[in-house]
Input
Amino acid sequence: MTRTVLVTGGGTGIGKAVAAAFLAGGDHVIITGRRPEVLSSAAEELEGALTTVVCDATDPEQLEALRGRLPDVVDVLVNNAGGNREFDGAPPSDLRGLAERWRANLDANLLGAVLTTAAVDKLLGPGGAVVNIGSFAADRGAGSYGAAKAAMNTWNIFLAGQLGPRGVTCNVVAPGYIDSTEFFRDRRSAAFHEERVAETLVGRAGRPEDVADVVRFIASPAARHITGQVLRVDGGVIPTR
Ligand SMILES: NC(=O)c1ccc[n+]([C@@H]2O[C@H](COP(=O)([O-])OP(=O)(O)OC[C@H]3O[C@@H](n4cnc5c(N)ncnc54)[C@H](OP(=O)(O)O)[C@@H]3O)[C@@H](O)[C@H]2O)c1
Output
């Protein structure tokens, strides 16, 4: 059965790998992002039934426009858009700057997912799935970014309760250190990389495909009784007892 899958921030990194995984399964995939040139280049690279829509996940008007372009049913929503806005510019030197940083990370990593889900809510039906891309930072005290991802985990439980009676599952897939994405910008020195790899139980960094395979599973009929969960894809950095 061909499904319609919406992946926010699907032009690069983890989102692009998620799009590729669903496309390989024959699904129709819609990817969004703020940069048209990034979406065009992803469209050239990815093979299959792909649609690209420029849309900022934090902008209500752009989300309304996106909704107008979607089919009647969205089977899978992957709230992947996000990133650590603390990497932008110098650390804040006053309260105004601190407030901007926190708002930027809460907008990018929490509000974007909340608004996108609300925008497509009525299009989600029985057998559907919402997959929110969280982070192991939610459990590691990583300032405003970790706080935003932790809030996403809590909101996901609420969402699972709201959509569960309609047959829609809601889960968080929480990556650990994934290299080869735009996430770390120019911060990924050799020492930075080695430190993060050393924290894993498997001795390697995660790849976008590691996350994409779990997203595809958790959105599949094989996982229909799993909801309200956080699934870590971090090479064992935070083991579960
Ligand atoms: N890489 C890691 O180690 C890691 C670890 C844990 C969690 N994560 C999470 O995984 C997700 C994907 O990150 P990534 O590693 O693949 O990094 P990435 O390559 O920077 O991907 C982020 C994507 O989201 C898009 N985006 C950002 N803000 C957006 C917005 N407001 N509206 C629409 N699209 C937006 C970006 O494109 P535009 O700039 O063109 O909009 C980009 O395509 C993020 O939620 C991130 O927090 C990553």
